[in-house]
Amino acid sequence: MRRVMRCVTLWVFLTPVLPVVALMPLAWAVAPPPAPAPAPAAPVPAVGRGWPVGSRPPVLRGWQPPATPYGPGHRGVDLAAPAGSPVRAVAPGRVTFAGRVAGRGVVSVALAGTGLRTTYEPVRPSVRKGDRVAAGGVVGVVEPGGAHCGPETCVHWGLLRGETYLDPLSLLPPWLLGRGPSRLLPVVPRQGSARHAP
């Protein structure tokens, strides 16, 4: 009788637990492995050889990355430039788009060997899709009007890797941004200014 009571007691306690214990190996087999940590973003190479407009234009508005893909932010930089100013490719590449988007002229250039793409707007293109451009090559001129920069005319300069927007200023080497180290030139006496011993 004791043996029967032990079996019944054991059965009462184990009955609710058995299906869970039986399914645990299955749950472990079905559970997906933990997601790998995202790889750090590759740095942007400083391949720029010059500014898109002017020699060192005022930045009217800087890059402000959005927190989410469709969130608010500023996906590029606005550079002050008078209408009609030439717009130049900052690095060598191939034109992937030259036309109008939402009433504004846009030029996009895939930078050679980098996986990066620059965009310039509003620009009246002087290039076509497929054209190769050299660093400093003119891709168009700044269009007048447009409300992007308020009363001033500007060029909105963007940089993308795939669908991810990046800071286009990171393409420029520090010396072009005025951030390079100070360099002292050697002092060379002028002719006729050397002191003569008495």
UniProtKB/TrEMBL annotation:
Keyword Signal among UniProt keywords: yes
An MF annotation (GO) of this entry: metalloendopeptidase activity
Key word Hydrolase present: yes
A Pfam family matched in the record: Peptidase_M23
Protein name (record): Murein DD-endopeptidase MepM/ murein hydrolase activator NlpD
Record domain M23ase beta-sheet core: where: 73-168
Taxonomic source organism: Streptomyces echinatus
Organism superkingdom: Bacteria
Keywords attached to this entry: Hydrolase, Signal
Signal peptide: none
